[in-house]
Amino acid sequence: MLVDLSHTIGAYLTDVFITRLDWWVLLGFAAQALFTMRFLVQWIASERAGHSIIPVAFWLFSIGGGLLLLVYSLYRRDVVFIAGQAFGVFVYLRNLQFVMRDRKIAASMV
Fold first, then answer.
1. Which among 65, 69, 54 is positioned nearest to 99, based on CA atoms?
2. Tens of pLDDT, residue by residue, the chain (110 residues)
3. Model confidence, pTM
4. Farthest-apart Cα atoms in the chain, separation
5. How far apart are CA 35 and CA 88, in angstroms?
């Protein structure tokens, strides 16, 4: 029984991490790395400021990761993932638009 379970788990891990490894999976990992970077950037900026802040780099990494994950989900034909990423990219772009608008207003007041 234990040997069968070990073989089953080993076969699963081989299938997921070796057999199915292609450039689409690498694209998915690159997209996930961008998403991870946005949290790291936000965390470091907040630690330095001593309060929660969201820098522009957070939105740039969000847009990059979201677009790559959208491409990945389109390739995988996952409708739930497609809808989630498409909506997320829209929100990230809108937030970046607010940041840019506020910067423009602040610059004009100086």
1. 54
2. 677 888 899 898 888 878 888 898 888 888 888 888 888 888 898 899 888 888 899 999 999 999 999 999 999 898 888 998 999 999 999 989 998 998 899 999 97
3. 0.73
4. 74
5. 12
Check: CB of residue 55 under 8 Å from CB of residue 45.
yes
Amino acid at 82: I
Q: How far apart are CA 49 and CA 71, in angstroms?
A: 35
Nearest-angstrom CA–CA distance, 23 and 5: 30
| DSSP per position, 26-89 | HHHHHHHHHHHHHHHHHHHHHHHHTS----HHHHHHHHHHHHHHHHHHHHHT-HHHHHHHHHHH
What does the block give as tokens for 23?
């450039």
Phi-psi region of 40 (alpha: psi -120 to 50; beta: other; left: phi over 0): alpha
- Block residue for tokens 């057999």: 19
